[in-house]
Amino acid sequence: MNIPFVDLKAQYHSIRDEIDAAISSVIEETSFIGGKHVKKFEEEFAAYLGVKHCIGVGNGTDALAIALRGIGLNPGDEVVVPANTFIGTAEAVTLAGGKPIFADCDPITYTITPETVEKAITPKTKGIIPVHLYGNAAPVGELKELAERKGLFLLEDAAQAHGVTYKEGKIGSFGRAATFSFYPGKNLGAYGDGGCIATNDSELATRIRMYANHGRIKKYDHEFEGTNSRLDGIQAAILSVKLKYLDDWTEKRRTVAQLYTEKLAGLPLATPSETPGSRHVYHLYVIRLQNRDKIKEILSQEGITTGVHYPEALPNLTAYKHLGHKPEDFPFASRCSKEVLSLPIFPEMTIEQVETVCEALKTALSKA
Ligand SMILES: *Cc1c(COP(=O)(O)O)cnc(C)c1O
What we know:
Layout: H1 8-14, H2 16-29, H3 36-49, E1 53-57, H4 60-71, E2 78-82, H5 87-95, E3 99-103, H6 114-120, E4 125-128, H7 140-150, E5 153-157, E6 165-166, E7 169-170, E8 177-181, E9 195-199, H8 202-212, H9 233-243, H10 246-263, E10 278-279, E11 285-288, H11 292-301, H12 331-339, E12 340-343, H13 351-367
Residues 59-61, 85-86, 88-89, 131, 157, 159-160, 181, 183, 193, 195 line the site of pyridoxal-5'-phosphate.
């Protein structure tokens, strides 16, 4: 049995009529840029998160860079980011004129912690960007406390964390602002690129909205130079349809994850943990084990597609070579990059598919 890593087609088929109708209506109304579909989705997603404002933008990387532009960085300002994340998190800091400083991850939750962040703080630090990696919340309450104590901003990178709850609130409502990606493979994915910024700060929301639209509110009244990064009407209409199903899809992901965790118990590997007080949404189901590459290869021969998130910690990439880091500077992030393996997971995944992956993994472990 071939098992894909994600199955976006199965999801489309389950809601095809609604999606097709939504796309046609945008085309009929030629509401391609801005317009009522974008406004509607922004309001729905803000209500879903429990925040005052949501601003749609072109993608999750722009969302981070634009949020940082709105908050404001001066040349040389440092922003602490995880050593183990997608490059977009760090890239956005550079794009916004700052300098990314890496913090190591916790070996159980894979997120940054107040302890790892404190080591990265210098007199030049202006903010912290926790990533809710794999759909698991970073300890955002404690990080917020640290940020307040040190006078820093907290910007949540929630690109992998749509619908995660933490204590009484939703992830995305804790920082000065939070950013989401709607890349097709994300838990709430568009049919192209998309992203947004969520915030309770009305003044910041206005600046962000202007920055994403050439520094203007009215047509040719540009108050400053911004950029062009907008969520388009077709993507917004698709996201409005999909948002209604998000909680249901999250429950299905959690059921798949629970089944994996039960079936993999007792094997020589680490299964994912949930940050205390939070609900993981399993954007990815990531295990950690020895001989990762060999196991991945054996699974691939069996038709099972897996992923590695991520094969290099950011400080070890060529892109950040100029910073002069050694892998030992970030021991857990560097170790994780050699040991993590993401198993197939998507809401439509069947029990039989999960069982097949687990059986193949057991066999692979005995061979590797
Ligand atoms: C996907 C992702 C991004 C970037 O989002 P894009 O929409 O692809 O630009 C940023 N940060 C993290 C953690 C991501 O997973």
